[in-house]
Design goal:
The chain is mainly β. It is built from one helix and four strands; from the N terminus they run βββαβ. It has a four-stranded antiparallel beta sheet with strand order 3-2-1-4, with no helix packed on it. A hairpin with a 5-residue loop joins strand 2 and strand 3. This is OLC1v1029868C1.
């Protein structure tokens, strides 16, 4: 995947940088659906993404949107993503070091 300046790099995306028109070209490395421990209800769809420079970021699709996006986020596919929100992730468990 070659870098194209029409796209933003994942390393430039942070929750503190306000921008409403992010455009990223990424490969879907892995997807999974976390569940609540007791009920086993699906919480969301999560995906680990990587760009042309090798920067990784965690993407999360809300439960209400899983049916719409699950088939589009297949592992190994390359996707152009736009029109998304950035939020700071809290907690002790991190899938990558991206801020």
């Amino acid at each position: 995947m070659a870098y194209d300046d029409r796209f933003d790099l994942l390393e430039d995306i942070t929750s503190s940088r306000i921008k409403s028109n992010w455009r990223v070209n990424v490969r879907v490395l892995q997807t999974w659906k976390p569940t609540y421990a007791k009920s086993k209800d699906v919480v969301c769809l999560e995906a680990l993404l990587v760009d042309a420079k090798g920067t990784k970021i965690l993407a999360q699709v809300s439960k209400q949107w899983i049916k719409r996006f699950e088939d589009q986020l297949k592992e190994g596919t390359v996707k152009l993503l736009s029109n998304f929100n950035i939020v700071k992730v809290g907690g002790g468990y991190r899938t990558n070091t991206h801020q």
